[in-house]
From TrEMBL:
Membrane in keyword set: yes
Name the UniProt record assigns to this protein: Type II secretion system (T2SS), protein G
Lineage: Bacteria, Pseudomonadati, Verrucomicrobiota, Verrucomicrobiia, Verrucomicrobiales
UniProt keyword list: Membrane, Transmembrane, Transmembrane helix
Transmembrane segments: 25-49, 61-81
Length: 171
């Protein structure tokens, strides 16, 4: 029972990290885990196979395989959860122009143009996790928002143009 509680706590902590982490960090960690985990799993399997053919058991290797199995289970849980996190973050970022527009229009009414940077606003709503401080730009007449697509490649992005009021995908 004590071991089950430990696994439950580990899974809960892992799920919390996946839920609140930056999607790009999760992608890097997944790549690192695959780059290290797959060769280690193959080596441990080979060494365990060699030990079993000689009639010996190696408790350390069995423990390594057990840890790798737990990591595989957590990875299997993380993939669908990670996809949900990405979808939620994208929806939050795409809804942000409607929230931000009143602040920008107030600035435009006072100054005659949109602010060049978000920092020029006296206040603005909290930034979504995908749209950073550098995810806004303006030429004065129109403004643009953008964020990297966490599901796509490293150069894939979503771009919002105030002139059209639409998001479009750019790669």
């Amino acid at each position: 029972m004590n071991r089950f509680l430990g696994y439950f706590v580990l899974t809960f902590v892992f799920a919390a990290i996946v839920w609140w982490s930056d999607p790009f960090v999760l992608r890097a960690l997944a790549f690192l885990g695959a780059a290290v985990g797959v060769p280690v799993a193959l080596l441990a399997t080979f060494l365990l196979w060699c030990a079993s053919r000689q009639g010996r058991t190696r408790p350390a290797l069995v423990q390594v395989l057990r840890v790798l199995a737990y990591a595989a289970v957590l990875g299997g849980v993380a993939l669908p959860l990670n996809h949900q996190v990405f979808q939620r973050a994208i929806a939050e970022a795409k809804a942000w122009p409607l929230v931000l527009r009143p602040y920008l229009e107030g600035y435009r009414t006072v100054h005659g143009t949109y602010p060049r940077r978000l920092q020029d606003l006296s206040s603005h709503p909290p930034l979504p996790r995908l749209i950073g401080k550098d995810g806004y730009g303006s030429d004065g007449r129109n403004f643009t928002l953008w964020f990297g697509d966490p599901i796509g490649g490293f150069f894939d992005a979503w771009v919002y143009e105030s002139s059209t009021g639409q998001w479009h995908f750019s790669s």
